Amino acid sequence: MKITLTGSLGNISKPLAIELVQKGHTVTVISSKAERQKDIEALGAKAAIGNLEDVPFLTSAFKGADAIYTMIPPPHFGVPNFDLMENWNKLVNNFAEAIQKSEVKRVVHLSSVGADMTKNSGIIIGHRNAEFVLSKLQNVEITFIRPVGFYYNLLLFIPAIKNRGSIASNYGSDDLIPWVSPIDIAATISTEIITSTLAHRKVLYVASEELTCNEVASILGAAIGKPDLKWDLITNEQLQSAYEGFGMSKLLVAGLVEMQASMHSGEFYRDYYLNKPELGKVKLKDYAKEFAVVYNK
Ligand SMILES: NC(=O)c1ccc[n+]([C@@H]2O[C@H](COP(=O)([O-])OP(=O)(O)OC[C@H]3O[C@@H](n4cnc5c(N)ncnc54)[C@H](OP(=O)(O)O)[C@@H]3O)[C@@H](O)[C@H]2O)c1
Fold first, then answer.
1. Hey, which of 60, 162, 185, 197 has its CA 20 to 30 A from 294?
2. Overall CATH class of domain 2-150+180-207
3. 186 pocket-lining for ligand 1 (C-beta < 6 Å)
4. Residue in 12, 29, 31 to alter for ligand 1 test, most ligand atoms within 8 A of Cβ
């Protein structure tokens, strides 16, 4: 198959490109940076260098593909007043226009757990809007991939572990939270791309392991030589002011705090538990080794 991937050599798209190339497919990887071309070609894929904001470029990168993988890059947390909704709406409308103009018939789109929610999902409302825009496309088979929280989010807690000796957030303690590795997400996407489901619209959740936050703290703690590491619960207001103290955009922080409050209440995972996937292969103990390397840098 001819397959075009957005997401460059990012967390999901790199293992996805490797897997699809190994399976014998002709893979094109979109990156915004010309210097990425040689690394993409080294994987056995073709590079399409250009920007997701450029519809004619996207149309030509999608043209002739049997299937495409679309993803919206993560928000710029450090840019003051970054308007996530405006940015994500623009990008998803670009995808929709390029899909129609290129006449691609099979799309696997990266969304998120929480995209079913109409309120209390914080920044994830942007993923819900994206699903809505793409769902309106005619004559296109679309799978929405809804991963749970990525293991790499845990890296955000390194300053707290170093400064206060514990993890702290407005979810935590004994909250049961599902986690996922981008490697398991890539495996699900790869299978989905090459298996025509003949379903007009489909939603697939992806998760690797379900753990309480204190279990997460114990596993990370063991990996970094702090076996008594704990995960404290703090209030929404305490978290908002701590994140703002790191210079993060106030608007985005409010969206994160609201999303995490729903993780704490369990509302965020209601649809996930109703449509629970088989868990993936990469467990937190595996990821903890990578976490420890970054922690010790
Ligand atoms: N973190 C979570 O818990 C979680 C949970 C559910 C869903 N998600 C979603 O997962 C996605 C992130 O996936 P990921 O970690 O695989 O992403 P990632 O590693 O951050 O990869 C995104 C890549 O896209 C490329 N890119 C960025 N802006 C571009 C542009 N304007 N034009 C062309 N390419 C551009 C960049 O590569 P170049 O520099 O080479 O262009 C970047 O490395 C987000 O949509 C997020 O909302 C995250």
1. 185
2. alpha beta
3. no
4. 31
Statement: the pTM of the whole predicted model exceeds 0.85: yes
The CB of 12 under 6 Å from ligand 1? The reply is: yes
**How many Å apart are CA 22 and CA 267, to the nearest integer?**
39
User: Mind listing the pLDDT tens digit for each residue in 213-224?
Assistant: 999 999 999 999
Whether the CB of 52 sits within 6 Å of ligand 1: yes
Distance between CA atoms of residues 169 and 233, nearest Å: 5
- Closest Cα partner for 190 from 9, 19, 8, 4? 19
Neighbours of 197 (CB within 10 A): 13
pLDDT tens string 62-107: 999 999 999 999 877 777 777 889 999 999 999 999 999 999 999 9
8 lines ligand 1 (CB under 6 A): yes
Q: Where in the chain is the domain with CATH 3.40.50.720?
A: 2-150+180-207
Per-residue pLDDT at 79? 74
How far apart, in whole angstroms, are the C-alpha atoms of residue 5 and residue 201? 19
Give tens-digit pLDDT for 170-188.
999 999 999 999 999 999 9
Q: Is the CB of 149 under 6 A from ligand 1?
A: yes
Ligand 1 test: best mutation among 89, 93, 150, 157, most atoms within 8 Å of CB?
Answer: 150
Q: State pLDDT tens for residues 239-297.
A: 999 888 888 888 889 999 999 999 999 999 999 999 999 999 999 999 999 999 999 99
Q: Which of 246, 245, 266, 248 is nearest to 256 (CA)?
A: 248
